[in-house]
Amino acid sequence: MKANDVWINDRNFCVRSFLCGIADKKAYFINRLHENLPWESLGKEKYCGKTETGKVYEQPILVVDESGKEWKFRLIRVCLKKSTRDGDKEIFIITNLSKSAAHAKMIADLYRKRWKIETVFQELTEHLNSEINTLGYPPAALFGFCVALVSYMVLSVVKAALSSEYGAERIDNEVSGYYLSDEISGTYRGMIIAIRDEEWEEFRDLSQSQFVTLLKQLARNVKLSRFRKHPRGPKKPVPKRKFDPKHPHVSTARLLESRKKR
Hints:
The protein contains 8 helices and 7 strands, in the order βαββββββααααααα. By secondary structure, it is an alpha+beta fold. Strands 1, 2, 3, 4, 5, 6 and 7 form a 7-stranded mixed β-sheet that branches. Helix 3 packs across helix 7. The radius of gyration is 25 Å and the shape is extended.
């Protein structure tokens, strides 16, 4: 990390030594708060306005690192209009960016955009097979990943054409990238066999505006019901383990160490 870098991370990276280490490098972070991070309030929470996803509040907080050094950070709370897929009605974001550098609403929007990047990698992995286990050689794995990236760009153009006709919100919320990918992969071989090479040449000479007009025309004929998402319900909480004196937990490391002594 270098000075003035800004890192946006999920809550798995909300570790005290890591965040304070970033600040010590004169760099910056926008991090979702992990509930295990110890902090103290330095002032009352203030209302900062609204974003597309909900109301934004902010308060100053204090975090003390392992060496006892004190760090003043900002804690931003976003009260969501819609709960997350995990059932969270609000999210907390911690940052060391100053108010003059980034308003609380800007930070909330920046963190929300991080989810779009994460969704891209999820689609690359699950829908476009960007990580193929049998590709053991690094160049082959990199080539496979790049092919998946190009495929994702093509899929994004398809979604953009659909969004222009049916609205971006409807496409984002209702249309499944998996079913679109499955449709393309399922019909590709037959299409290549049935359509001669020269039939594709006319697309090569189309201008950008002509190509966009054609895509929008084709998008009108798509039956969105064939590609509808099937969102999962909220995650069920993991049941707490009950301690049974008859079957106490035994450390694997301890068992291995005892065998060595024998």
